[in-house]
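Minutes, structural biology subgroup

Action item carried over from last meeting: produce the structure token record for Cell division protein FtsX (Geomonas silvestris). EB confirmed the sequence was re-checked against the source entry. Recorded below for completeness.
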Amino acid sequence: MTAPKANAMKKTTKPAGAVRPKLAQEGFFGRSGYFFARALANLRQNVFVSVVTVGTISLALLIAALFLLVYVNLEGLANGWSDKVQITAYFDKEPAPLAVAALKTTVKSIPGTKSVTFISKQEAESRLRARLKGQESLLEGVNADVLPASLEIRLDREHRDNFAVTHYVAALKKVQGIGEVQYGEEWVQRFNTFMNFFRLMGLLLGSFLTIAVLFIVSNTIKLTIYARKEELELLSLVGATRFFIKAPFLIEGVLQGALGALLSLLALAGCYFAFLHNAGSFLGVNPAGAGLSFLSPLHLAVILGGGVLLGFIGSLTSLRRFVNV
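Output recorded by EB:
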């Protein structure tokens, strides 16, 4: 063997137990860059499947977001309406001025009371005449003695459901001097029943959409795994860890979920502002006067986080079944 060849072999042959030199991109950032690069490559290699997955996630989250938007505005309207709902307690006999303050203090001590207003017989007559302005003939022979004095009571928001109102009225009737109590029982029950039904429908719809998105994302990742099955087996044979193999697929699911959530929020914003722009013409409603509002930053963050979580869980479910390394 000639001298040059021997020198070349000495330069290229590593002694036993030699440590492999670190790559320039090795470490946390290097591995993260590799994982993201592989995830993006997977998306480019399966463009049609990825587009279908992102579109499905967007549609599912858009439906859920629209439902949430309607619910939030209904809750706002409900709070506005419930602020106007009051309990009216009529006296059998108008109390003396000195007794009114004591009665108001007693009523205010009942848990749930927000405000108490005393309405005398004279004030009740003035209100009635103001409401029937232009139809004074209907009030001929009616005077203040015919109308009862009353207390108008407003409740705080925590005591406006059926059970709380019923319990409050029962306590109110025990106050001495109070006779009949009216509070629109039928309206309160119907409205609370409607809101409970709406919440139940939202829960069922959200559960169905969640299962559908998880199924679609999981099957999308399965197709990617099948297409690269030989490559994954080779990585396993050369000693790649489970995390090293799974990470690109998990990132792929997260990217699909995040992109789907962003698209759904953009579509939701477009639908919302289009509705605001045209509501006055085809509904005859002033959106500003109706108190309509868009989702809060917290709700938007929840939708975005939900898309990311759905993508991650869908990928993780698929990998647990098909990557046994």
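Discussion: Residues 185-227 form the longest helix (43 residues).
Next step: EB to file the record with the rest of the batch.
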